[in-house]
Design goal:
Layout: H1 2-15, E1 19-23, H2 28-37, E2 42-44, H3 49-61, E3 65-71, H4 72-76, H5 80-88, E4 94-99, H6 117-121, E5 128-130, H7 135-147, E6 152-155, E7 176-178, E8 186-190, H8 194-204, E9 209-212, H9 222-229, E10 233-237, H10 246-256, E11 263-267, H11 280-286, H12 291-302
Length: 303
């Protein structure tokens, strides 16, 4: 997704001189054309995340639309104070574009994985949280951010994800309901790259619907609330710790809307930080978030 996102920001920058990109530690392959053709709209500031966030805020105050990029934990953890005070509190047009959401960088260990970003960033004022499932959705999100106002955060996968979001009618703000082949009161709720795994599960279980929410807080929309009310068995699948992600928001909706009688099963990265090293797929197997484990557990619940 990173390559596609930077290429699209480059296109936006060619059309609008207010669009500025700031990176921290990118290889030349992704950025050479942008850097050469639009040097005044491209900055590479090195490993200095707090500085980058504050610089982006300053540029946004002059009227720029700023996109900043690095690996997720480096912005979310190192520069959280600047994100809250300089961008969020001031409601500025800065998009925090982060690679390595979830366990993408599992081989590098827990210093590089980002398993609690939605939780950490939930209290940042005005910040919209996004998790695209593929490059097609990423481009739609970037266009939405570029045409609107306020700060945003995008959690990206590792790239080369299979395109899937062209298969259904699309909405960023009210979730995407993907109906199974047969009428069902079973519903998966998911976001980001886990949508692809959920679609594979749906192909095996016909009586299973999916609600994909690329904008995390769209779960609070009236459309999503009505979808919840029309189902009985809810399966929440997310590459995030148990607290602060989709599960927490669904629980909040159930309490505030007084939705009774839902049977909820939650499949996530668990309660604790993941200190193991390994590829994303290997860690998913350990944590029972792989396709086979999810398929087995959901089948057991609805048989």
């Amino acid at each position: 997704m990173r390559k596609d996102s930077i290429e699209h920001i480059y296109k936006l920058a060619k059309e609008d001189c207010r669009v500025v990109f700031i990176g921290s530690d990118l290889g030349a392959g992704s950025i050479a054309k942008y850097q050469t053709e639009l040097p005044k709209q491209f900055l590479m500031e090195g490993i200095s995340e707090a500085h980058i966030v504050s610089m982006a805020a300053g540029l946004a105050l002059t009227g720029c639309k700023v996109f900043i990029h690095t690996i997720a934990p480096f912005f979310v953890r190192r520069a959280l104070e600047q994100i809250i005070l300089d961008i969020g509190a001031e409601n500025l047009d800065v998009c925090i574009l982060c690679s390595g959401g979830g366990l993408v960088y599992g081989p590098l260990g827990h210093s590089h994985t980002m398993v609690d970003d939605f939780s950490i960033l939930s209290t940042v004022p005005n910040l919209k949280l996004y998790a695209p499932a593929d490059a097609l959705e990423m481009i739609k999100i970037l266009n939405e951010i570029n045409s609107s106002q306020g700060p945003s955060y995008i959690r990206m996968g590792k790239g080369n994800e299979k395109p899937v979001t062209h298969e259904f009618q699309y909405s960023l703000t009210s979730g995407n309901f993907i109906q199974g082949k047969n009428h069902s009161d079973n519903l998966i709720i998911t976001t980001g790259i886990m949508l692809q795994r959920c679609l594979d599960i749906q192909r095996k279980i016909e009586k299973l619907n999916i609600l994909h929410i690329p904008q995390i807080d769209s779960i609070y929309s009236s459309d999503c609330i009505n979808i919840l009310k029309n189902h009985k068995n809810i399966f929440i699948i997310e590459e995030h710790l148990r607290t602060g992600g989709i599960y927490s928001r669904v629980s909040d909706v159930m309490i505030s809307e007084i939705i009774m009688g839902l049977n909820i099963k939650h499949y996530s990265l668990g309660n604790d930080y993941i200190f193991q090293y390994g590829k994303q797929e290997q860690l998913h197997e350990i944590l029972k978030l792989d396709f086979d484990s999810l398929l087995h557990n959901i089948k057991e619940c609805i048989k």
